[in-house]
């Protein structure tokens, strides 16, 4: 988010002496984007963040991709994938391109390390579970329906407080922000935006750790996973201020935009990233023109791949879809309501569907791991029977 925020102790000027009670200096770190021309925050550490004891590569980040085949509509049942691992190592990547990767994870193990994505921002959508996003900039409690927006370079750990946890993870190659058309020239969300700053939750409590030991920070960089070992806790920040920080927004606070006739998908847009957008389909009133057809039209995604992650409810234009389904409708071929769904929608007043959509403007590739959970008949599910 693009507004100023601060937590903890900071000096009254940037880059001046800021001392501890024993007279030693705190260590100032500028954490910013786009060199020094993007948004940034300034952090004050108990220890120099450069003091690494050991560094090594763990593995490549992505799993192998499928061999190219016919361009077709795809349906994957993410709930059939096996739960396990922690919130990072347990991720199953389904769809990947140069700009974004889409994964799910149902972790059963706690994180005994810390994680930082240095390739781009992340959005973690909480499908199930409660807990806390712990970061060096403070903690944010989470619950089902929350989008956790984690900027590049943020060291974090998910502290899970309930047994069943399930996340949709959107890994970006760059910055994720609210759409520009919702904001004025100063970055403030305007009245026509489907959410505003009051809906955004920022880090509320800064936990400063001053303890020694062995602490591992795993870092995604250059599409590889690396380990860095420190002899002090990475959450040693005593204060910070700026415009770069993690934040949370609940899909339940998204105010849907409706009309007398069908509104196109951009009205559901929630975030924008490099060459992709994230949209929220939430419970809403249907179109109110006397001849309205609430179901969407058949359409071709020209220069766009469409991914839908179904959270809950009855998605009115689809058959054979269940909670946790992931559909891919690639550019080049039309798609739309399943047979009978157009007529069924006429006269309906409201939908209770809940889904997250990712539209990408470069083609997505399917991982080999995703093929295990694919419905091979989905491409033909529009045939009249």
From TrEMBL:
Pfam families: HgmA_C, HgmA_N. Residues 90-249 form the Homogentisate 1,2-dioxygenase N-terminal domain. The active site is at 262 (proton acceptor). It comes from the Bacteria. GO terms for cellular component: cytoplasm. The keyword Metal-binding applies. Residues 275-383 form the Homogentisate 1,2-dioxygenase C-terminal domain. GO terms for biological process: L-phenylalanine catabolic process; tyrosine metabolic process. Fe cation binds at residues 299, 305, 335. The keyword Oxidoreductase applies. Keywords: Dioxygenase, Iron, Metal-binding, Oxidoreductase. One of its GO terms (molecular function) is metal ion binding. Gene3D superfamilies: Jelly Rolls (2.60.120.10). Homogentisate binds at residue 335. Its cofactor is Fe cation. Belongs to the homogentisate dioxygenase family. PANTHER family: HOMOGENTISATE 1,2-DIOXYGENASE. This is Homogentisate 1,2-dioxygenase.
């Amino acid at each position: 988010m693009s507004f100023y925020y601060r937590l903890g102790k900071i000096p009254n000027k940037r880059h001046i002496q800021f001392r501890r009670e024993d007279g030693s200096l705190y260590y100032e770190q500028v954490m910013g984007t786009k060199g020094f021309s993007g948004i940034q925050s300034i952090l004050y550490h108990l220890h120099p963040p450069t003091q690494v004891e050991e560094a090594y590569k763990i593995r490549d980040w992505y799993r192998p991709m499928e061999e190219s085949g016919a361009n077709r509509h795809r349906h994957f049942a993410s709930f059939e994938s096996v739960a396990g691992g922690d919130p990072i190592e347990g991720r199953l990547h389904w769809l990947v391109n140069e700009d974004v990767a889409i994964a799910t994870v149902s972790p059963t193990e706690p994180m005994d390390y810390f994680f930082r994505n240095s390739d781009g921002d992340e959005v973690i959508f909480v499908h199930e579970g409660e807990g806390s996003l712990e970061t060096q900039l403070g903690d944010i409690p989470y619950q089902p329906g929350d989008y956790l927006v984690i900027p590049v370079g943020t060291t974090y750990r998910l502290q899970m407080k309930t047994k069943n946890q399930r996340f949709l993870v959107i890994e970006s190659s760059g910055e994720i922000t609210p759409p520009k058309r919702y904001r004025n020239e100063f970055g403030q969300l305007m009245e026509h935006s489907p959410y505003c700053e009051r809906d955004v939750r920022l880090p509320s409590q800064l936990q400063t750790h001053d303890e020694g030991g062995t602490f591992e920070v795993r870092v995604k960089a250059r599409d590889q996973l690396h380990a860095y070992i420190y002899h002090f806790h990475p959450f040693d920040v005593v204060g910070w201020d700026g415009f770069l920080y993690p934040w949370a927004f609940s899909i339940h606070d998204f105010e849907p935009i409706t009309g007398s006739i069908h509104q196109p998908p951009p009205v559901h847009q929630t975030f924008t990233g490099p060459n992709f957008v994230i949209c929220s389909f939430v419970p809403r009133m249907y179109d109110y023109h006397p001849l309205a057809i609430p179901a969407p039209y058949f359409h071709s995604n020209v220069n766009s791949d469409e991914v839908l992650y179904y959270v809950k409810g009855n998605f009115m234009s689809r058959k054979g879809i269940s909670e946790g389904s992931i559909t891919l409708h690639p550019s080049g071929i039309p798609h739309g309501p399943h047979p009978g769904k157009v007529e069924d929608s006429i006269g309906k007043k409201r939908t209770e569907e809940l889904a997250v959509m990712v539209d990408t403007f470069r083609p997505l590739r399917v991982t080999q791991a995703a093929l295990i959970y694919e419905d091979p008949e989905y491409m033909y599910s529009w045939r009249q029977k």
